[in-house]
Amino acid sequence: MHTLTLDAITKRFGSVLADDAISLTVRGGRILGLIGENGAGKSTLVSILYGLHRPDSGRILIDGREVRFRSPGDAIAHGLGMVFQHFQLFADMSVLENVVYGAEPGRWGVLDRRGAARRVAALAAEYGLDVPLDQAAGTLPVGVLQRVEILKALYRRAELLILDEPTGVLTPPETRALFQVLRALADQGHAVLLITHKLDEIAAAADEVVVLRDGRRVFGAEVAATTPTELARHLTGREVDLSPRRATRPPGDRALIVDRAVTAGAGRAALDGVSLTVRAGEIVGVAGVAGNGQETLAAIVAGTRVPDSGTVTLGARDVTTWDNARRRAAGLAHIPEDRNSTGVALEASVITNLAAGFHRRAPIGDRGLISPRAMRAHARELVARFGIRVADPDAAVRGLSGGNVQKLVVARELAHRSPFLLAEQPTRGIDLGAVEFVYRQLDEYRSEGGAVLLISSELSELLALADRIVVLADGNIVGEFAATQADPERIGALMAGTAVAAESI
């Protein structure tokens, strides 16, 4: 395969036009970055390309010849390989077994294990994919699992490799290693389609870029001929500012103290003597690979879990054993990790959701009574102030986009100017314009004296917003950095556990 072309691909789902006459070409020896916000049409386009959906009109051509994919098997037979955002691996099977599963070499139904191992090992060596073939997949870190997925595709003779948001769970060193693998693949003649929403990844990995917006192709260029600022403008249709934001004055009194918190986990401590402090007018970021204690730290701060030992202090009060409702009354605001399950009531109205958790406070609540008129006025004011796009405030939240649901949660939690905010993954799964909104709101909250504990899997987000960054690994704080002196590679190594010495800068 030298080129794969999508020619005027159009796809509707009912009245929704998901893809509108989109054309692009992926060439052998090149990496094409496909970028777009939620709902831009990326997922539908890739589903068509991999045989999961059929286009209503338009053509797929390989080296100028039209092909039709009725299933993923058809796509694989024509040399396409897909690395999904969520890995398709069996945890209890070895790497070798995962790679050859469904395409096992052998006779009479008996696996030629030695022959399979030789071929897979040769492929791994050829493309620099260092993986332990005999080790169970479930015991490996995510960066290695991704290499296994790439190896699976190459084993099936993929000439075009499609990667869907491949860095979402990777540390910076793992991301850099992945991009080196993709470049090696391109250098050997493979075509690579990299689907992402991260502008910095386009600059780091791609040769060409295509931007989708509202189901249409709105821009395409050589990466060297464009800039992240220009790409952001094409993504959103306006100028976007995600530049770093810093505190403009020294921090004030201590708003949150976590002191030597220990919490049991599965087989090891989820938190093992963690201590940290957040001061008024300061954002402290928490970096770490998922499963290393961030979720538990958030739970003991929010009051949904009590540590086995250690203390949690809000302001001057020991709140270690207080539940979430009592902590909120004492000045805790909380943007939860999963906005749909714990941030909002999807079937309730926008008005109700904007009052939730604060309905006992004036002007909404007074001596146990709730004023519907005050709730409605409160909702109108927040919708206008925070730019929440909603046609009818009486309508259920379920009908809002992800970005507008997150705006609702942020608006509700910041409207009452509580002195402390716990923000978990506040920009996960939202568009670039909504990301800019969250950045601006957190920065304004800090400038007005609010204290923020920001837990994020996006290191770029921590570097843009935090004044200090702590790194959690295996339930321990293994490093602390002033954001202005933080080295992403060093932080990434600490996150991955490849840097063993704890440090503070």
From TrEMBL:
One Pfam family here: ABC_tran
GO terms, molecular function: ATP binding; ATP hydrolysis activity
Protein name, per record: Ribose import ATP-binding protein RbsA
Recorded superkingdom: Bacteria
Keyword ATP-binding in record: yes
InterPro entries recorded: AAA+_ATPase, ABC_carbohydrate_import_ATPase, ABC_transporter-like_ATP-bd, P-loop_NTPase
Domain ABC transporter: 4-239, 256-499
Alphabetically ordered keywords of this record: ATP-binding, Nucleotide-binding, Repeat, Transport
Organism name: Nocardia macrotermitis
SUPFAM superfamilies reported in the protein's UniProt record: P-loop containing nucleoside triphosphate hydrolases
